[in-house]
Design goal:
This protein is an alpha+beta fold and 228 residues long. The protein is built from 8 helices and 7 strands, in the order H-E-E-E-H-E-H-H-E-E-H-H-H-E-H. Helices cover 40% and strands 21% of the residues.
């Protein structure tokens, strides 16, 4: 964290592009001494990293890892005020699972509902996904269901409901984060940088990997033997 407060939960009609447009209207394209901690985006590298210019150096951001963390923290903040808003699917998805997994989804339906997931048992070895959190991007529902099922079954009865719920949020944040090789506009990149600055623990993704690193001008000068 950069000592700033956690951002308010984003509205159900969350649109990353809309947030980017808002950020673009308020963010200067010129870097000066008042530049924010993570600077201003310059470009995207191989569809994976964001290059940002700070007043005294260069910042590189892993965009998927960073968006995963900000999404996770946003969902946790939203959950703190009540159930996460969900968006009904136009066509519910029927997914085959094992009978043991179907038992788990039936048992934890109320818990998943708090996380914005409406998953109900639809047969001895199948479930139906009827709604997902409103501010998540489209995702592979079958893979999501399998990952959530694994979260629910991990460690059996040794984990509490809240711990299992946090695992589910982490899985959804990972699936809802921007994917590698997706091209972002400069305003979208700046929107992500600003959201990172408002998010606690944004220096690490949910799996403990760093989300960004910093290279000072001094380091760059030494790398290129400037001043010698």
């Amino acid at each position: 964290s950069f000592g700033l407060r956690i951002s308010e939960p984003w509205p159900p009609a969350y649109s990353y592009t809309a947030v980017a447009r808002e950020a673009a209207a308020s963010v200067s394209t010129q870097v000066d001494t008042q530049a924010p901690p993570l600077g201003f985006a310059l470009a995207q590298l191989h569809g994976i990293y964001i290059l940002a210019q700070a007043p005294d150096g260069l910042i590189l951001v892993d965009m998927h890892a960073a968006h995963e963390r900000t999404t996770y923290e946003r969902m946790k903040a939203a959950l703190g005020t009540g159930p996460i808003a969900s968006q009904p699917l136009l066509v519910p998805a029927w997914i085959a699972v094992s009978s043991a997994e179907a038992d788990l989804f039936e048992e934890h339906a109320a818990t998943l509902s708090r996380a914005g997931l409406d998953i109900v048992r639809s047969g001895p070895a199948s479930v139906q996904v009827r709604a997902v959190p409103a501010f998540l991007a489209p995702m592979d529902l079958e893979e999501l269901v399998r990952r959530v099922g694994a979260d629910l079954s991990a460690d059996g009865a040794t984990r509490g409901i809240e711990e299992a719920l946090n695992e589910v949020l982490g899985t959804m944040a990972c699936h809802g984060a921007v994917r590698a090789h997706r091209n972002l506009t400069v305003p979208e990149m700046n929107a992500l940088l600003r959201e990172m600055e408002r998010t606690v623990r944004s220096d690490q993704c949910n799996h403990g990997r760093p989300t960004w690193t910093y290279v000072s001008l001094g380091d760059l000068d030494r790398m290129f033997l400037r001043g010698r």
